[in-house]
Amino acid sequence: MKLHKGFTLGVTMLAAALLLAPVTGSAASLGITSDTIVRLYERDDNGGRQRSLLPVYEFLRLDYTAPKTPGLSLHAYGWGRVNLRDDFGNADDTADGELLYAYLDYLDPKNRDYQVRLGRQYIFEGVTRESVDGVYVKTDLVPTVTASAYAGFPVNVEDVKGRGGDWIYGARVAQGIPGRYDVALAYKHTGNHGSTDEQFLGADVTLLLPASITLLGHTTWNLVTGGWGEHSYELRLPFKAFELRPFYQRYRYEDFLNRRPGGSAPFRFMSQLGEKVDIAGTEAFWYPAENMEFGARYKHYEYDKRYGAADMYTVLAAVRRKIFSEVGVEFGRVEGDIAQNRYYLGRAYVYWDIAPAFVTADVVYVNYDDGNVYSMYGKDSAFFASVGAGRKFLDKALNVKLSLDYSQDPYFDKDYRGTLAVSYAFGK
Q1: For 322-339, what is each residue's pLDDT tens digit?
Q2: Gap between the Cα atoms of 90 and 202, Å rounded
Q3: pTM of the model
């Protein structure tokens, strides 16, 4: 644990040295964004108890460009929370916080053909979607080839068996010709407490075919279990004002998720059931005008063990005004083999921009069929409504929003929530 904290602390001290260095020559660029959120929860649960919470959140982001070293910058983001009132019996959990990322970034200022990042960072490439304390490098080897690699300590296993013996590393190589195709291979290896926890190999492909047709594909192979974890393919077929998107997905949870005891992946209990699911369907969109959209979706779920089959049908419509304002409705039906997967779903929403102010509203209603697990507990529906308003001040640097939410569902008889969000962006 000291090793990991020392690594992050070392990067932070190096960043501080950059911030405090005398500024000569070109001016530094500093951007600070603060998001303060105050929430109030008032709940009546099914046991007849009334409970309340009053948490205050602070999200702080900093972006700094070093004045003496072109291409070098610092990026940091973290959050903190304090509970001012807590009726849920969590007296020992009144405050919390986390440093989400803090890293130094160097991007070649001349040709921009290589990049190096050092510190706590998020990596989203190929089979990797992780928070890592370590180093990341990326380069264009030749005009059509891009390679990247990373190594360090996985943040998500720091509370699993301690931090000793943890590691993560991986790489991705992509080759493509703009406007024609792009293919990539990726590798990821995670260690937890001295033993291999995850080991994945993945492939991605994007093919740009004639008539503006696009094929997207992704496949994952689990080297620990020796099985295919994921197959995902989508075809996009545009024709004038229409677009059709048929797709197919297959997940084998014991190979897609980590099933090792004490492993790092969430929802690993699903991998222990030996479940598989196939998802197939299509989406269709019609754009009769630049500001109008109509759509329909169909999804068929086929579970191997627990849930049987289910079909989801959805239709939607949206109208936009001057890009930012939008009004939309959506209606859907889920019809499954088991009662739990039989219900209707409806939604209506609006976001109206009346600069420098804006208003929002969102309503969701779910109606459960007879025999549904929720209807058997005396609840045949769920309802959620939210209204909000906000305004921008100080040349859009200050954004204030107030929202009020109400819900009634199988878990809470009445649930009231109020949120005050204040965002301030300071930049030079």
Answers
A1: 888 999 999 999 999 988
A2: 42
A3: 0.83
